[in-house]
Amino acid sequence: MNQRRRSILCLIVTCTIFVLWCIGVAGQHTRLAKQVKVNSFSKRAPYLVIFLARLLITQPGFRLSSRSIIDALGQIQIYMESVLCE
């Protein structure tokens, strides 16, 4: 596989993971996320957000509001502000 094709493939994979992360973060507090949750009494999240997104998008009735997506993207800004020192 040549270098250009590998670079494009890496970009596609990165974008896919980012979209799954956004869906997972936005879908964490939905009713459907509580239904697919394993029987756990722990306060810790039972699934990584990317795996949760994969579970949620396979459910027939799963929909996210645009507000949920905007809130998920807002977490990126908070994270970046905490990491970057100016």
Mean pLDDT: 84
Q: End-to-end distance, in Å?
A: 41 Å
* Number of structurally distinct domains: 1
Our count of helices gives: 4
**Could you list the spans in which at least 5 consecutive residues all have pLDDT below 50?**
none
Rg over CA atoms: 16 Å
How many E-type strands?
A: 0
Largest sheet: none
Shape: globular
Kindly name the structural category: mainly alpha
What is the beta-strand fraction? under 5%
Q: What's the SSE pattern?
A: HHHH
How helical, in percent, are the residues? Answer: 55-70%
Describe this structure in words.
With 86 residues, the protein is mainly alpha-helical. The model has no long low-confidence stretch (mean pLDDT 84). 67% of the residues lie in helices and 0% in strands. The longest helix has 25 residues. α1 crosses α3 and α1 crosses α4.
Summarize the helices and strands and which ones pair or pack:
Blueprint: H1 3-27, H2 31-36, H3 49-57, H4 66-83
Summarize the structure.
With 86 residues, the chain is mostly helical. It has helices spanning 3-27, 31-36, 49-57, 66-83.
List descriptors:
86 residues, mainly alpha, 4 helices, globular
